[in-house]
Amino acid sequence: MYAWRVAADGLHLWSVNRKLPSFGEARAEIETIVVNSLLFLIARNRRGDPIGFIQFYNASPVDGFCYFMEYIAPPFQATLAAGEMPIIATEYLFDSFPFRKLYAEVYDHNPRSFRQLKRAGFIEQGYTPDHVYYKGVYWGITRLALTREGWDRFRSKFTHLHTTVVKGHQEEQHLDWDLNFTGSGTRLASPSRS
Q1: Which CATH superfamily is domain 2-173 in?
Q2: DSSP tag of 37
Q3: N or C: which end of the chain has fewer CB within 10 A?
Q4: DSSP secondary-structure letter at 60?
Q5: 2-25: per-residue pLDDT in tens?
């Protein structure tokens, strides 16, 4: 995670903190994230190389919501794993906790994430213009939400879509993956695809 935290070319996709931290500062940030959120590390099965993470944070159990964020390292952003991981993690979240709504916030300079969230059933809840400064421009941020009911509708569509997509891909285009929940050591692993 340290390499991702200090990679200036992709940092804008998941952090508003533009200061590149020392190893000790990054470790402290990451430890805070792990303690205060549900963090899933996405790793390749065969070699164990991490390719990204999913984080559920700012949870409000009383009000029934939390926030969602995914980061996938650039070489893996166009893979099937990048699309499957949020689905599996969201399924775990809605099956394991009484949340009624999941929020995501997306900056205007990240249209790929915006499109993916909309396809997954997230609906726009609000927009703040000129929210963050990046590469000489102020960018807006959109808050999106996925309700438990919206998730149930997406999940029913995804079952058919997943079967079609998996059958249409060749083996070398797949990443074997593990999804590890860092909080309690619970391990969720994909079924083997041969």
Answers
A1: Gcn5-related N-acetyltransferase (GNAT) (3.40.630.30)
A2: S
A3: C
A4: E
A5: 777 777 766 666 666 667 788 888
